[in-house]
Amino acid sequence: MWLASEIGDRKMEYDELGKLSPFHLDVIRETVNIGAGNAATALSQLLGSVVTMDVPKAELVSIYELTDRYASPTELVCAVYLRFEGEISGNMLWIMSEETAQELVNILIKKDLGDMLQDQIDQIADSLLVEVGNIVLSSFLNAISAMINCALPVTVPAIAHDMLGAILDLLAAYYGMTGEVAIISETKLCVASNKNSLGGHVMLLPDPQSLSTLLSKLGVL
Amino acid sequence: MTSVYHVGMGDIVVAKHPVVLTSLGLGSCIGLVIYDDIAKVAGMSHIMLPNNHEGKDVKKLGKYADTAVPKLIEDLIALGALKSRLKAKMAGGAQMFSVPGKNSASFLAIGERNIETTKKMLEQYGIPLVASDVGGNKGRSVEFYTDNWIMIVKVIGSEVKKL
């Protein structure tokens, strides 16, 4: 394990992602904790129900094992993606099961859409999920932005309903461009509704090139 | 008995008939099959990225299109295939998300570059691409059968395609 003092002001090269120390991963995990806490509050206010979160994780994963790590790569999921670009850049993903997505839509759309075409219902559901995703992911980033005192402008979010493997492929390819490990920092949000407990995984995926800036802004590099 | 091999990210698997080669949940990645139906051998590569620009040492040659194609051909020839009889089929290279107006998010279009480079490499090695199902914005799972040299492509919410 490296101590921050040993590293001094040496800039971390992006191909050194795999050399992140447990200490640095702890700091990133704490950052996820703060971001996700804010995201959970926002989701809770939106849904009017209690939202809890799991203990966050920050780990280095081989890009070759990424897609088999969480569930079957063929499992159908709904994912909302957005990218942030400021002094620090990266990607954010909110991945939930298709049932969770459907449940959220049911909670938020009180009106009966029974007489509409399925296509139109799907479009409304998607734009709703994109908006909820935007709120969740932006709240996450806002907390981090305030903590490190640096603006993190985001792109318009995008949504996909597809196989988990196909979604995580993107990350494997992305981190694969600079090395063979990906940094996965994430936590699970749980919405305590009447029947089920729903939520989803919120992932913060900093660009490898941004890690040194992030860690130095957090005061550990 | 037919064996089933799962070809993971960046992997290359070659085998003799009878065999089923599969790759699950391909997003921007490519499932490339090259086969010789006379020698009855086939191989699948699960390609992640177009080029190994830096010429870096990679643990898995199957990671990049430009290193996967020659390695796959080499492995097939070692297993008894004749280069002049080789044919290829491929699927994948989707763009799962699109974000408007950001150049720096161009990595989202990595699938397109994977397709281009794989095609270029096949052309360079003189291997005819006899069937393909590429691009779009949906993930795919592929299964290749040496019984009939057909690639089955599955997309959620669509009918199964046979290549």
From TrEMBL, chain A:
On whether Iron is a keyword of this UniProt record, the answer is no
The record's listing under InterPro entries reads: CheC, CheC-like_sf, CheZ_family_phosphatases
The answer to keyword Magnesium applying to this record is no
Quote the SUPFAM superfamilies the UniProt record gives: CheC-like
Name the record gives this protein = Chemotaxis protein CheC
CDD domains with a match to the protein in the record: CheC_ClassI
Top-level division of the source organism's lineage: Bacteria
Give the UniProt keywords, A-Z. Answer: Chemotaxis, Hydrolase
Q: Which Pfam families match?
A: CheC
**Domain (CheC-like protein): residue spans on this chain:** 23-58, 125-159
Automatic annotation (TrEMBL), chain B:
Its name, as the record gives it, is Probable chemoreceptor glutamine deamidase CheD
Q: Tell whether Hydrolase is among the UniProt keywords.
A: yes
Q: Which UniProt keywords apply?
A: Chemotaxis, Hydrolase
Q: Which CDD domains match?
A: CheD
Q: Which domain of life is it from?
A: Bacteria
Q: What is its EC number?
A: 3.5.1.44
**Which is an annotated Pfam family here?**
CheD
